[in-house]
Each structure stands twice: as structure tokens, then as C-alpha cells.
Amino acid sequence: MHGSASSLSATLSSWLLVLLCAVSGAYCLRRAHGWSGAAAGEAVMGFGMALMAVPLGGGGAWRTPVLGVVFCAAALHALWLLRGGAHHAHHLLGSLTMVYMTVAAVSGGGHGHGAGLPLLTGSLLLYYAGYVVLGGTRLLTAGGPVPASSVPSASPVPMPVPVPAPGAPTELVRACRLAMGMGMLAMLLSM
Question: What is the full DSSP assignment across the chain?
């Protein structure tokens, strides 16, 4: 009885991770303009993470080579985007992390337990834990100061409302990136 409740909980959490990553991938795909930008790479990562998290039980031998090709292509795409600035290094690391987890799942018999190199897995866990904490902090502070019109003030001079810079990520984009970071952290924790 205990084993079946634990199995049901693991299956439910896997499907929730699939949903989270698929929704993030769909949003990134919606905001992508062609395949040249970072949003396209984020969409591929979101859908790939969703596919990787699908609990297939013993089946799915086709999944590993397909995921390996997808994540290697995403790594090459991120490497290409890296020419434009160092802010694409996170996408490259994410793609390479997914390649690592795909290879580790094969070498660990597909169960995820005991697979991978402990030092590398621990380093990636630290990176993604920091990424999630920093991303959550940025998301919490993204709204900026409260507009003057909603705060009662004794001063007759209204305070300026901050306007985001053109091309600056919105709260929804930050939330999407945070969700994928949490998904990556969850996948690494299951190794």
C-alpha cells in the first residue's frame, strides 16, 4: 500500500513537471519570432524537458536518442547565439545539462538513480539552485515601486511610474524562465 501511494505521488509530480515545462515551452514558442532568438531555444528546452519528464515506465527506448539529438541541436543553437553576448551562456549550460541528464539516464538504466557523476551533478544543482533563488528574487522585485496614483500622498507632485526598457523581460517571461529553472532543478534532484 505504501509503495503504491509513493508511486502515485511520483507519477503525479512527474506529470505536473511535464505540464509546467510544456506550458513554459508553449509560451516561449508564442513569443519567438522565427528560430533566431533566445525564445526559440527556450521553447525547445521547455518542450524537451516536458518530453524527458514524461513517466513512461519501462517503455520509451526511442526517447533517449531523440532527446540527445534535440538537446545537442539546442546546445549548438545556444552556442550560435552566444556570439551576440554572454547572456546566452545560461542557455548553453541548460542544453548541455539536458544532454548530460539524457546520457546519465541511459547509463543508469533509465531510472535516474545512481546515474551521473556526483561532482558534476552537485555543481549543476548548486548552479540551478542559485539561478532559481536569484530568478525568484528578480521576479519579486520586478514590479518596481508602486505607482504614485495608488499611494495616498500629501505631496501634490506625482511620482514618476517606471517604464520598462524596450526589450526588457516582462514578469511573465521571468516567471517562465523561473519555472524552467525549477524544472531543471527537480530533474537534477531526481538523478
Answer: -HHHHHHHHHHHHHHHHHHHHHHHHHHHHHH--TTSSHHHHHHHHHHHHHHHH---TT--TTHHHHHHHHHHHHHHHHHHHGGG-GGGHHHHHHHHHHHHHHHHHHHTTTS-SS-S-HHHHHHHHHHHHHHHHHHHHHHHTTT-SPPGGGS--S-SSPPPPP-PPTTPPPHHHHHHHHHHHHHHHHHHHT-
